[in-house]
């Protein structure tokens, strides 16, 4: 991660961005595998300024300013925003695009290649808009088509080469875009196809440096997958669909970014000036991404031959990445959600075609615990 210092630090520790203040030293706590804590947001590029604001420096607006501009530089920097990864860190059917000779939905849609220069992410102007986006996005009024064709076959990630992993996840991204293009564009938004970069034990992106994990980085709107994830998360090697659940979860974060849900939730959580509230927003994001991943699996299950017999393994993937399972602490209040919550929302997606079923921002906090 960049060691660039923030000028005129009025908020605390030298070199720390203002929107990182108010957290325990090192971020959200000890990483579950003994690695130094990973800063999920990273440093903004020199001179970066989001819409409606100067370069970073001002104190975050207080709650009384809710009707004013959402000064994102004082809350969160899109260029440095990433999602922590699939692993917690301690704390009806549509009918779009059918063709007469195909049983699959949206089959005539030509999936674009990976977009390495995607359009900017949508940004809310006020806190009220941010709350509206998270709770009442037009995206929630859409449906994910099913069944949808997918040509990505199961892969043994434990023995696959980097080239094979890249080939598999590239194909999976094509399937993900084919599933999610109708509801995203139906909401009047833009869908982007991310690339998938395979890396080893460490990866430095515009969002900072991450260890072994799978994650989405909003700075470049791309997805990253460690070829050692099966060592940290054995179920990825044990279940043939686990890797696809993981990558679909990360694409869920891409959906949140392209719909404005991601930046809105992060801004609201950080503006609360309360760690527990910020963690709650994080859990709502993560469990929603679980729901989106389950909805994707539902859409492509016919094409891939996924059956009820595979449900136990799929649910086991969600369970294995619960904050309590990762840390061994049954009472932890973390940033991804307990195993039971992650299974619940994964199952919710598996059983629904309505995107609104994945609205984790209007349910009681206990349902994303």
Task: List strands and helices in order, with pairings.
Elements: H1 127-136, H2 162-186, E1 196-199, E2 203-205, E3 208-210, E4 214-217, E5 222-226, H3 229-232, H4 235-238, H5 242-259, H6 261-271, H7 275-304, H8 311-320, H9 323-327, H10 339-350
Parallel strand pairs: 1-5
Antiparallel strand pairs: 2-3, 4-5
Helix pairs in contact: 1-6, 2-5, 5-7, 6-7, 7-10, 8-10
The value of Rg in angstroms is: 19 Å
Number of domains: 1
Strand order of the main beta sheet, please?
A: 1-5-4
- What is the helix fraction of residues, given as a range? 25-40%
Number of helices: 10
Order of helices and strands: HHEEEEEHHHHHHHH
Task: Please give the number of β-strands.
Answer: 5
**Low-pLDDT segments, ≥5 res:** 1-79, 89-99
Class per helix and strand makeup: mainly alpha
Main sheet, how many strands, which sense, barrel?
3 strands, mixed
User: How far apart are the first and last residues' alpha carbons, in Å?
Assistant: 31 Å
What's the pLDDT, averaged over the residues? 79
Shape: globular
User: What is the strand content?
Assistant: 5-15%
Main location: membrane
InterPro entries: Uncharacterised_pept_Zn_put
Membrane topology: Single-pass membrane protein
Organism: Microlunatus spumicola
